[in-house]
C-alpha cells in the first residue's frame, strides 16, 4: 500500500509540475479588477494585466481561464478587449456547483488568474449577410461581442433559451443588447418548437447561423436548418455544455 501511495504522489507531483510549466509557457497572468452581479448567476468580470496588452483580438474569439491547473480550464467569450490598457471583460453564467461556477463567485477584485488566448472559438469565415445566434445564458457574451462589430451589413439577431426569463431580460437590458429574443426554457424541451419557429424567416434572409449553448438544442436546430436547405457553410456550431458533462471547450 505504501508503494502505491508513493507512486500516486509522484504522479500527482509530476502532473503539478507540468501544469505549472504550461501556465508559465502559454498563459498570461491577469488580475480581477471588478466582479459585478448582473442578476442571479450572471457575473460581469473585468480582468487586467500587462500580458493582455497589444493583443490582436477579434469579436467572437474566446479565452480559457485556468481553474487552478493548466489541465482544468473554463472557456469564456470576451465582450470587449482594450489592447492599450490591457483590459478585457467577460460575462460568466454560473450553472451550479463546479470549478467555473465557483470561480465566478469567488473572483474578488485583487485576485489573480491565468488566461490562455484569445483565439478562435468558431469558424467565422462566412458569406456576407445577417448573423443569427441561437443559444442560451452562456451565449450572451458572444451575442454582445458580435453586435459590437462595425459591420452594419451583418446585423446580429439572437434567440436564446433561458431558465429565468426576467433575470435574462434584465441582463440583456443592462448590456443594451439589441435584436435579442428570449424564450423560457420548459421541461422536456417543449419550448424548442418556439425556438425552431424563428428559423425559417431568418433562413430566408440568407443569414449565417451560429448555434451555441446546450448540445441537445444545437443538434435539434441543426436538423431543422437542414430541412430548410440551409447550406452547411452557413451553419456554425459550438456546444458550451451538456447535462452530465463538464469543461466543454
Automatic annotation (TrEMBL):
InterPro entries tied to this protein: FAD-bd_FR_type, FNR_nucleotide-bd, Riboflavin_synthase-like_b-brl, SIP_FAD-bd, SIP_fam
Gene source species: Sphingomonas agrestis
Domain (FAD-binding FR-type) ranges: 25-125
Protein name: Siderophore-interacting protein
Gene3D superfamilies from the UniProt entry: Nucleotide-binding domain of ferredoxin-NADP reductase (FNR) module (3.40.50.80), Translation factors (2.40.30.10)
Bilayer-spanning residue ranges: none
One Pfam family, short name: FAD_binding_9
Taxonomy of the source species: Bacteria, Pseudomonadati, Pseudomonadota, Alphaproteobacteria, Sphingomonadales
Amino acid at each position: 500500500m505504501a508503494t502505491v501511495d508513493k507512486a500516486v504522489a509522484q504522479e500527482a507531483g509530476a502532473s503539478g509540475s507540468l501544469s505549472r510549466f504550461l501556465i508559465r509557457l502559454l498563459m498570461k497572468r491577469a488580475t480581477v479588477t471588478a466582479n459585478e452581479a448582473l442578476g442571479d448567476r450572471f457575473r460581469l468580470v473585468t480582468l487586467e494585466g500587462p500580458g493582455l496588452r497589444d493583443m490582436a483580438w477579434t469579436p467572437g474569439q474566446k479565452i480559457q481561464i485556468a481553474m487552478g491547473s493548466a489541465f482544468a480550464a473554463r472557456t469564456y467569450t470576451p465582450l470587449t478587449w482594450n489592447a492599450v490598457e490591457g483590459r478585457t471583460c467577460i460575462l460568466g453564467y454560473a450553472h451550479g456547483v463546479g470549478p467555473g461556477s465557483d470561480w465566478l463567485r469567488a473572483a474578488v477584485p485583487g485576485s489573480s488568474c491565468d488566461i490562455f488566448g484569445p483565439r478562435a472559438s468558431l469558424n467565422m469565415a462566412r458569406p456576407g449577410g445577417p448573423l443569427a445566434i441561437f443559444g442560451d445564458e452562456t451565449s450572451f457574451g458572444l451575442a454582445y461581442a458580435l453586435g459590437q462589430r462595425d459591420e452594419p451589413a451583418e446585423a446580429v439577431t439572437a434567440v436564446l433559451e433561458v431558465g429565468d426569463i426576467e433575470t435574462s431580460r434584465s441582463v440583456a437590458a443592462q448590456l443594451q443588447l439589441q435584436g435579442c429574443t428570449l424564450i423560457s426554457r420548459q421541461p422536456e424541451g417543449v419550448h424548442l418548437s418556439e425556438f425552431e419557429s424563428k428559423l425559417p424567416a431568418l433562413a430566408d434572409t440568407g443569414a449565417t447561423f451560429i448555434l451555441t449553448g446546450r448540445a441537445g438544442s444545437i443538434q435539434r436546430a441543426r436538423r431543422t436548418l437542414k430541412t430548410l436547405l440551409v447550406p452547411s457553410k452557413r451553419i456554425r456550431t459550438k456546444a458550451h455544455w451538456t447535462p452530465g458533462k463538464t469543461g466543454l471547450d
